[in-house]
Task: inverse folding
């Protein structure tokens, strides 16, 4: 069988993969100077922007592209493994736009860690003295980042189970290495190990579910799975063939596998330690890009392959969503470390994203994706400001943010805006509209209890967001003297980009709404 | 005229944006404007990065009059709107603006005014303007005046937007806009326990808002429209009774937190007590009205069957609130706290009027809204002035003899209290009287005996209201003037001493979690006042200043005018009320 490959459809992941290779080669052969990390960063940025441009072009054309197709056979109609449709493009756009900010954060981090650069940091605590040199190798960093992005962009386009699993692993594996790439950092190593173990277990769980689905339907293509499950009504399955229990188990296992990736309760334990231990750009990557990829996979599986089985998975997802938002918010209430707080709060936000899927209405996926897109903008912005502050104070506790409005008014106002957005209150209208979209979907679906749970959670969430935002405006003379590190241009650009996008979404959320629904 | 309607929102918004653009950073304790905090200003400059400490923002043009100008333009626009309003058609929305904003959410930028909203829009613009006039000379300690002006302007956008909105979601968005600015007003410029009060305020009201949103979405899910005009015209068509009851419970629950209705009022005393004067004035004068306005505008016209089912309960909670508020007032030891609890009682009358579902009751509620906004605004202004001069608002420490010591202030306090307790001839009377009249003859379908009981209890409440105000007046304004000096401080510098005692332990952190105390700021300024005014003589602080008088006199004039000529307001609200209840 000869497959024709539509390279136009494949272009975004291809570009990222090719640039990843280029970065590795450049790192190996370029003379090592002080400017090498910056050069590699710029190459990476060019790759990400190129992929983003392709996604934008595909969106403008508005065609549905598909490739890696198998022809129709007795088992069913033609089925494709890689489909570029509206959902794919929205996810691709969100992931790549977030990637732009992550690359900017990485550039700031890597120049900071480069002893040759003018504004380098004093040696990181824990670095072994005498082994001078870059604490984080730039070439490997960007290579791994691009690999993860390739996987993240491939995942929303995947329409068969094997491709889904491969793409998901492609997102996960480089992130373990990225987490541990800060050499001689015990916290980073611990975080990487935790992430690795949790992720491997979740992959195993999901593979088991996937194999059950394949065993029941005899196909890996999502469309064919849906067709098989639809033409064999569940009632008819019970007497002779596979019992309905198998299907339930398969659904639960697949959902559980993705729940690990999006850090949904009860598979959330890794989030706090891993976010805190990893470098801030990696934490941002985990909380936005990796999470978006996880949701892409979940939405694709649930709404394409298991669309007819909504009454099996919807209650599970609804309960999962309610528990996730509650536990995430309760954990975030007591945090004193900025990144840990963001970690638990992003667990809670996962709950809000899951909630529309729990009622399985016709627009559930659109509502989830809308929330995810707006969440991505505001959360990555918060991480950008946190990265900025963590340059000045290694501890990065909430108390280090006291009086930020007097030391760095622009950053403080930006952070306050992002936090209020995340809380979902005006003037952070983007967050408010995102919440309204989700609430509307839940109320329309008739899940009143879930709406009430989410309403209470909104209040819980506000408590810690406003506590943090309030600190920014409290004078703190003790923190007055800041080390003489000058501001970093990539970080400033990163914050500005996130702020502009969040502001734009506040005034015109229609931008996202029309793209998703 | 459409430009005027949009301008009502755009002017304060643009004013706030300009402030944001031209403010780089500000000293923590208002070194530029507060003379008494000069000791602190040195420390301030020490920890501001030199890049920011340029002359452009410390010694630059002070925004004394900026807020007055912006809110003055807004007030002028509101008056233009009131002047060109067609009072013959007060029942229908006029000057409508209807543009799509977010088609994906069905959210339209739909504004308009009718007889119900026009008085409230004017009241909001007036109170905000008066607050800025008051602020020209009377700054709350906490400094950062630009930030305060910015916050108040954003607050004004939210408040006016709430009253102008004719789209359910737009109403909700405006309703939410006020939360964050009010939080910061309390948390940054508030009194001793401001941190807890601010957090309580925002969490409580956000919970209410979230429930309100659910109710609005239920309405939307069943009718498919967010247009308040169409929904009010439909009188609940398309929604089964159970849905209406559920939606009414959610909407009313959300609004009742804001109003506030007993037993959801517990955020209010703390917030009012800790907020600075301007915060208390706007909180009592406008923010509470947003709750009752929501009842009159959304809950009752859009969900008539739900309202009919829940009205007895609403009335019961309202009269409990009246009695509870009065009894709580009798037990208060702090002047501001007492006024705060009196708001619970007064809003009880407003809610009782709404619960009757009759035109008389609704008109009473809308009248009571405006009257309460004027009178309680004035009361909080006066109470703030008392606190500023005495350094405390505790009744026992205020002692007696205010009429001897500060004759003007004492008379104004007496006037405001007498107006608030509902003396015939002043604005406070009509709202209460009409509400009781409405309860005498509730809408058909409501249990009349029950409402007669409500009326009786409410009548007893008016007596209690008179009791606590007169008791307070007898303790504070009458009596001998030398009482407080004897027990509150040293004879040499008694008032400054009390202020120190009250102000010194303050820690300027809005959140309870902060541990280490930061430098105390600007503690003495509260009593001494600006230096260009003759300083306090021994134990005799200044009486009412021209700025205070300017800020208060419109409220006094309107209180008297509405009291003598209630038709002024009733003629505006009545057509709209008739239209809302007409098809019943």
Result:
């Amino acid at each position: 069988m000869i497959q024709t490959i539509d390279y136009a459809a494949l272009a975004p992941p291809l570009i990222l993969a090719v640039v990843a290779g280029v970065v590795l080669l450049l790192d190996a052969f370029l003379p090592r100077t002080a400017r090498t990390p910056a050069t590699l960063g710029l190459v990476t940025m060019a790759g990400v922007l190129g992929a983003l441009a392709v996604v934008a072009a595909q969106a403008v054309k508005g065609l549905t592209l598909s490739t890696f197709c198998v022809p129709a056979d007795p088992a069913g109609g033609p089925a494709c493994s890689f489909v570029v449709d509206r959902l794919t493009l929205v996810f691709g756009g969100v992931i790549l736009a977030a990637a732009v900010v992550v690359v900017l954060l990485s550039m700031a981090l890597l120049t900071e860690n480069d002893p040759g650069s003018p504004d380098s940091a004093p040696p990181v605590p824990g670095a072994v003295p005498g082994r001078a040199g870059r604490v984080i190798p730039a070439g490997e960093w960007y290579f791994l980042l691009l690999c993860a992005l390739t996987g993240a962009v491939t995942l929303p386009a995947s329409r068969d189970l094997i491709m889904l699993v491969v793409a998901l692993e492609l997102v996960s594996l480089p992130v373990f290495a990225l987490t541990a790439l800060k050499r001689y950092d015990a916290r980073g190593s611990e975080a990487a190990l935790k992430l690795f173990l949790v992720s491997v277990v979740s992959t195993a769980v999901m593979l088991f579910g996937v194999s059950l689905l394949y065993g029941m339907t005899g196909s890996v293509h999502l469309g064919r799975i849906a067709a098989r499950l639809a033409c064999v009504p569940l009632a008819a399955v019970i007497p002779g063939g596979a019992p309905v229990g198998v299907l339930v188990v398969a659904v639960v296992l697949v959902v559980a596998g993705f729940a690990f990736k999006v850090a949904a309760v009860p598979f959330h334990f890794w989030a706090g330690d891993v976010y805190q231990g990893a470098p801030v750009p990696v934490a941002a990557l985990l909380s936005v890009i990796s999470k978006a990829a996880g949701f892409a996979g979940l939405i694709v599986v649930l709404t394409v392959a298991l669309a007819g089985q909504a009454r099996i998975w919807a209650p599970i997802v609804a309960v999962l969503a309610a528990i996730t938002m509650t536990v995430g918010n309760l954990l975030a209430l007591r945090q004193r470390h900025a990144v840990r707080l963001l970690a638990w709060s992003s667990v809670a936000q996962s709950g809000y994203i899951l909630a529309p899927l729990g009622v399985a209405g016709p627009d559930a996926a659109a509502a989830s994706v809308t929330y995810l897109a707006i969440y991505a903008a505001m959360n990555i912005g918060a991480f950008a400001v946190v990265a900025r502050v963590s340059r000045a104070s290694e501890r990065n506790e909430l108390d280090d943010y006291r009086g930020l409005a007097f030391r760095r008014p622009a950053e403080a106002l930006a952070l306050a805006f992002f936090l209020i957005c995340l809380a979902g209150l005006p003037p952070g209208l983007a967050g408010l509209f995102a919440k309204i979209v989700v609430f509307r979907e839940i109320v329309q679906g008739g899940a009143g209890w879930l709406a009430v749970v989410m309403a209470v959670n909104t209040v819980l969430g506000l408590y810690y967001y406003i506590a943090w935002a309030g600190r920014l405006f409290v004078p703190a003379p003790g923190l007055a003297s800041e080390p003489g590190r000058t501001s970093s241009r990539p970080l400033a650009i990163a914050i500005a980009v996130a702020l502009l996008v969040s502001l734009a979404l506040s005034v015109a959320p229609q931008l996202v709404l029309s793209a998703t629904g | 005229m459409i430009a005027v309607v949009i301008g009502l929102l755009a002017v304060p918004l643009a004013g706030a944006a300009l402030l944001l653009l031209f403010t780089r950073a500000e000293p923590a304790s208002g070194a530029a404007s507060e003379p008494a905090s000069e000791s602190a200003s040195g420390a301030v400059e020490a920890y501001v990065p030199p890049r920011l400490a340029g002359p452009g923002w410390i010694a630059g043009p002070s925004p004394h009059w900026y807020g007055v100008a912006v809110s003055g333009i807004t007030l002028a626009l509101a008056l233009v709107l009131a002047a060109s309003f067609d009072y013959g058609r007060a029942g229908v929305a006029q000057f409508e603006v209807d543009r799509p904003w977010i088609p994906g959410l069905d959210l339209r930028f739909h504004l308009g005014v009718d007889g119900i909203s026009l008085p409230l829009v004017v009241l909001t613009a007036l109170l905000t303007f008066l607050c800025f006039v008051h602020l020209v000379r009377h700054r709350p300690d906490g400094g950062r005046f630009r930030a305060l002006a910015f916050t108040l302007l954003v607050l004004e956008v939210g408040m006016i937007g709430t009253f102008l909105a004719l789209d359910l979601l737009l109403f909700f968005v405006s309703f939410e806009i006020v939360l964050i600015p009010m939080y910061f007003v309390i948390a940054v410029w508030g009194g001793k326990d401001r941190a807890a009060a601010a957090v309580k305020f925002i969490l409580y009201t956000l919970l209410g808002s979230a429930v309100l949103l659910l109710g609005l979405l239920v309405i939307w899910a069943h009718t498919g429209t967010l247009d308040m005009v169409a929904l009010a015209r439909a009188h609940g068509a398309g929604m089964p009774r159970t849905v209406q009851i559920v939606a009414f419970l959610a909407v009313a629950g959300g609004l009742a937190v804001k109003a506030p209705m007993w037993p959801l009022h517990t955020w209010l005393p703390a917030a009012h007590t800790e907020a600075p004067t301007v915060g208390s004035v706007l909180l009592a004068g406008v923010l509470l009205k947003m709750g009752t306005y929501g009842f009159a505008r959304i809950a009752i016209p859009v969900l008539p069957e739900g309202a009919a089912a829940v009205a007895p309960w609403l009335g019961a909670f309202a009269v409990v609130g009246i009695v509870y508020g009065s009894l709580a007032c009798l037990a208060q030891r702090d002047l501001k706290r007492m006024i705060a609890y009196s708001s619970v009682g007064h809003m009880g009358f407003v809610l009782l009027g709404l619960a009757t579902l009759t035109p008389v009751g609704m008109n009473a509620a809308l009248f009571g809204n405006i009257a309460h906004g004027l009178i309680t605004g004035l009361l909080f202004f006066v109470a703030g002035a008392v606190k500023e001069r005495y350094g405390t608002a505790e009744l026992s420490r205020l002692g007696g003899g205010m009429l001897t010591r500060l004759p003007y202030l004492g008379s104004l306090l007496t006037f405001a209290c007498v107006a608030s307790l509902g003396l015939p001839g002043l604005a406070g009377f009509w709202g209460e009287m009409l509400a009781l009249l409405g309860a005498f003859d509730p809408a058909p379908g409501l249990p009349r005996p029950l409402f007669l009981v409500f009326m009786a209890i409410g009548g007893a409440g008016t007596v209690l209201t008179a009791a606590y105000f007169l008791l307070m007046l007898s303790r504070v304004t009458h009596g001998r003037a030398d009482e407080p000096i004897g027990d509150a401080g040293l004879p040499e510098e008694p008032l400054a001493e009390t202020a120190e005692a009250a102000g010194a332990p303050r820690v300027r952190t809005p959140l309870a979690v902060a541990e280490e105390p930061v430098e105390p700021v600007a503690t003495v300024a509260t009593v001494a006042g600006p230096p260009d005014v003759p300083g306090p003589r021994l134990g005799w602080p200044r009486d009412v200043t021209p700025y205070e008088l300017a800020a208060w006199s419109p409220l006094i004039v309107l209180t008297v005018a509405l009291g003598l000529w209630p038709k002024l307001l009733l003629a505006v609200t009545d057509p709209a009320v008739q239209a809302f209840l007409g098809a019943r």
